[in-house]
Structure formats: C-alpha cells, structure tokens
Specification:
Layout lengths: L1 H9 L4 H6 L1 H17 L9 H15 L4 H14 L6
Helix pairs in contact: 3-4, 3-5, 4-5
Length: 86
C-alpha cells in the first residue's frame, strides 16, 4: 500500500497521540482510507486528515467507542467538510 507508507513518512498532525491509541489509529486510518477511495482526487497529505484525527480524538474522549464506531463517525465527519479542501 504505497499511499499508506508515503503518508506515514510525511505525516505529523496528532501522530504521537494516535500511535499510542491503537483503537484511535485504526479508526482514523479506516475513515481516511474509505474517504480517499471515494474521493481519489484528495491528496494523502490533505489537511482534512488532521481535522479527522482531532474530531475522532474528541469523540474518543467524550465516550468510549470501538474502532468501527469511531471510523463511522470519522467518515460522516469527512463528508460534512467542504469538498474544496480546508
């Protein structure tokens, strides 16, 4: 998965928080992968990834959720963001 490797090499938003929480990391990765599959024109380094992680971190702090539930919240959140980037 070439994009994932490139993404991880250059990505620095909430990396230390995300890496320390495997549920949060899995949810963010899943939501971002699904979003990019439906929007192939979105760059892997788009600022929406950082917004997604912040959103999921807040959701995780508000209530305990599993990765699937968080990923669903993340996908819904991404679809509400402006399509022209942030």
């Amino acid at each position: 998965m070439e994009d994932a490797v490139g993404w991880q090499a250059g990505y620095r938003c909430l990396e230390s928080i995300i890496v320390d929480d495997p549920v949060l990391k899995n949810a963010a990765d899943t939501a971002w992968t699904v979003y990019r599959a439906r929007h192939p024109d979105v760059d892997p380094f788009d600022s929406r990834r950082c917004l997604l992680e912040r959103h999921l971190l807040r959701r995780r702090e508000e209530r305990e959720s599993d990765a699937e539930e968080l990923a669903s919240f993340g996908i819904a959140y991404l679809h509400r963001l402006p399509s022209d980037g942030c």
